[in-house]
Design goal:
Helix content is about 50%, strand content about 15%. The protein is an alpha/beta fold and about 160 residues long. It has 2 domains: about 1-10 and about 85-155, Alpha/Beta hydrolase fold, catalytic domain (Rossmann fold), CATH 3.40.50; about 15-80, no CATH class. The strands form 2 sheets. A 3-stranded parallel β-sheet has the order 1-5-6, with helices on both faces. Strands 2-4-3 form a 3-stranded antiparallel β-sheet. The longest helix is centred in the first third of the chain and has 13 residues, at about 10-25. The radius of gyration is 17 Å and the shape is globular.
């Protein structure tokens, strides 16, 4: 499964994610402060889903919480150096196993045109758009995502 990402990232999504990363606080005093900040960026998430994401995406430090992620990515975003390092289309075209592309119908990261090109250039791929979801499909529409995952894996 490929979830709302492709060989090209739509410019609007790249800008939004970059701005979000650049403006994200490094540290929160407590879990409630981190949850309040994350709620603004993830309005569709259930309370349980948001709590899970924030709890597992942070770690204790300096009497508060800090995010778990590669700081080099954030530094690249802040410096304006966040670019596609390589052309990923040849790698995409080389995938030879059944592949389900799950796209949030309201995504600003995986453009509809890119998703269609992915299907057109790789005969092993099929595409499903999930209504009511943006880039974070599993968090925006967890039941729909779970159904797709179970169906695709044949579980």
């Amino acid at each position: 499964m490929v979830v709302d990402i492709g060989p090209d990232i739509a410019p609007g999504g790249r800008l939004r994610v970059g701005m979000l990363m650049a403006q994200t606080p490094e540290r929160f005093d407590d879990l409630e402060a981190a949850l309040a900040w994350a709620r603004a960026a993830n309005p569709r998430y259930t309370e349980a889903m948001l709590r899970h994401r924030v709890t597992h995406g942070t770690r204790p430090a300096d009497g508060g919480l800090v995010w778990k992620y590669d700081r080099a990515i954030r530094d690249a975003v802040r410096s304006g150096q966040w670019r596609d390092p390589v052309d990923l289309w040849p790698l995409w075209n080389g995938i030879a196993c059944p592949t389900l592309i799950v796209r949030g119908a309201e995504s600003d990261v995986l453009a509809a045109e890119t998703a269609k090109r992915m299907v057109a250039t790789n005969s092993h791929a099929r595409l499903v758009d999930v209504n009511g979801a943006g880039h974070t499909v599993p968090g925006d529409q967890p039941a729909a995502f779970r159904r797709l995952l179970i169906e695709f894996l044949g579980a």
